[in-house]
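A quick aside before the break. I want you to see a complete sequence-to-structure record at least once, exactly as it would be stored in a machine-readable document. Don't worry about memorizing anything.
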Amino acid sequence: MTDLPMTLDPGARQLPAMGGFNRTVLGIELRRMLRNRRTVVLTLIVPAALLLSIGSQRGWEETVGEGNVAAYLLVSMALYGAALTAAATGTMVAMERAVGWSRQLRLTPLNPVAYILMKALVALFMGALAIAVVNVVGVSQGKAQMPTHVWVLSAVVTLFCTLTFAALGVFVGYLVPGENTMQILGPGLALLSFLGGVFIPLSQYADVVRNIAYWTPMYGVAEVARAPLTHDLPWYAVVNAVCWFVLFVAGAAWRMSKDTARA
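That is the input. The structure line, written in tokens, reads:
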């Protein structure tokens, strides 16, 4: 009697440690982002140029919290640059889907949580790079004045605020075709920044526009990022920041689960 062939026991298969999270894939993700010239120009050069142009206007020496208007603008431009960078990092999933890379990943033991964690770390790294560039330009400009501990704390808080826009980038990346993601997010984030008080203080807006701004994604994170400088953080700004973060993460997880479930 011929012996039947042995069947593989799925339970005996060894899964990679930490769900497949590893430094090699993380390094590939980082290099891919740094090689993207459009991302580098849009997210690292534009915010610094805006800081130079806006910061050259009159009134920058007026006091704001523990610093001056120039410092207020510096934190705002750092947030804008980091938000753009984090969103661009998140939208890379659209390109991965377009070339079939995400489908290949579904055939590997890579855990979706590990995949998202690597995306988040890349977004944090790129956001930190954008914040560093804006701060270096601000220091060289010599107009921003605030204590060193406020400078450092503002940069750290701004960096973690950008996770909101990394989640937004992933969400949009699963909704929109790869070639159109940043064409939508770039102008969209610029509009949200104007409306959310990143470029222009809300006190200069009409009451109707200001009341709308309180509900936008940029308003809450901008107030949180500038809180170490201004010492003014309304409770509804914190609620705004938390709610939009949860909403974007939930949307990204939902669209990712839909994409993963496809045959």
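Two observations worth writing down. DSSP finds twelve helices and two strands in the chain. Residues 20-261 form one domain. We'll return to this after the break.
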